[in-house]
Design goal:
The protein is α+β, with helices and mostly antiparallel strands. It has 2 domains: 26-166, NusG, N-terminal domain (Alpha-Beta Plaits), CATH 3.30.70.940; 182-229, SH3 type barrels (Roll), CATH 2.30.30.30. Helix content is 15%, strand content 30%. It has helices at 17-20, 57-65, 117-123, 152-166; strands spanning 26-27, 45-52, 74-76, 79-85, 95-101, 106-112, 136-139, 182-185, 194-201, 206-213, 216-223, 227-229. A 5-stranded antiparallel sheet has the order 11-10-9-8-12, with no helix packed on it. It has a 4-stranded antiparallel sheet with strand order 3-6-2-7, sandwiched between helices. A hairpin with a 2-residue loop joins strand 10 (206-213) and strand 11. The relative contact order is 0.14. The mean pLDDT is 83. This is Transcriptional antiterminator NusG. Residues 46-153 form the NusG-like N-terminal domain. It comes from Methylobacterium brachythecii. Pfam families: NusG. Residues 1-36 are annotated as: Disordered.
């Protein structure tokens, strides 16, 4: 047998940790990255609406929470959550949880006792290039230029969004599927094929679909996340 540089045969390769790794079935958001939901009904807190730079809602909220005020600001970006399996060649990737703001460019800021000049100055702080350090674009206000706080109806609306997010009702699910529905496969070797839904196994998050292959019906099992309803 041919020998390598150190006198060893070429068939002496050892399995690396990557070879022995087990791909998790589900990867939820880490607590550090998950959106923080405040108590919207905190007594004495007044809520205001801010606009942010594109795709900077969560970063802006985190930056506002770090402002050294006593008591600190409350910041809330209503989010929705979705589980997706990323496509990467033919590799079987884990199902991952993603979050995204429900209202692009907007976040809500809670100020104990209402907006003051000190709080307003802290929120409007700018860097040497004149950009807002908290990634804010503006604060919605009245005609006189002062920030306009939300009324009771607005606060109740935000509280409903926060409660839905905390209880898991903000999770996004695809269109409901029914037996005999026409579906399109979005993953696997039969990707982009159209099939008929035969059965659903909710416990395993799988479905049985019937494809037409070479003129005859063939049933296969596939994950629910790899199906979409044909309109």
């Amino acid at each position: 047998m041919p020998r390598g540089q150190h006198g060893k045969g070429y068939n002496t390769a050892k399995a690396t940790p990557q070879h022995n790794a087990t791909i998790p079935k589900e990867v939820p958001l880490s607590p550090k990255k998950r959106n923080k939901v405040p108590d919207v009904q905190t007594k004495g807190v007044r809520w205001y609406v801010c606009t942010t730079a594109p795709q900077q809602e969560l970063r802006a909220a985190e930056s506002l929470r770090r402002i050294k005020l006593d008591p600190p600001l409350l910041a809330y970006v209503p989010c929705e959550f979705e589980w997706k399996r990323m496509k990467r060649a033919n590799l079987k990737m884990p199902l991952r949880e993603f979050q995204r703001p429900r209202m692009r460019h907007y976040l809500f800021v809670g100020v104990t006792g209402g907006m003051t000049d000190e709080v307003l100055a802290a929120m409007r702080e700018r860097d040497v290039e004149g950009r807002n350090v908290h990634r804010l674009v503006g604060i919605l206000g009245a005609g006189n230029g002062k920030p306009l706080r939300l009324n009771d109806c607005g606060r109740e609306w935000i509280a409903g969004l926060a409660e839905a997010e905390s209880s898991g009702l903000a999770n996004v699910t695809g269109a409901s599927l029914g037996i005999n529905d026409a579906v399109r496969l979005t993953g696997g070797p039969f990707s982009m094929f159209t099939a008929r839904l035969v059965a659903i196994d909710s416990d395993k998050s799988e479905a049985v679909v019937e494809l037409s292959l070479m003129g005859r019906g063939t049933e296969i099992r596939i994950g629910l996340e790899d199906l979409e309803k044909v309109a």
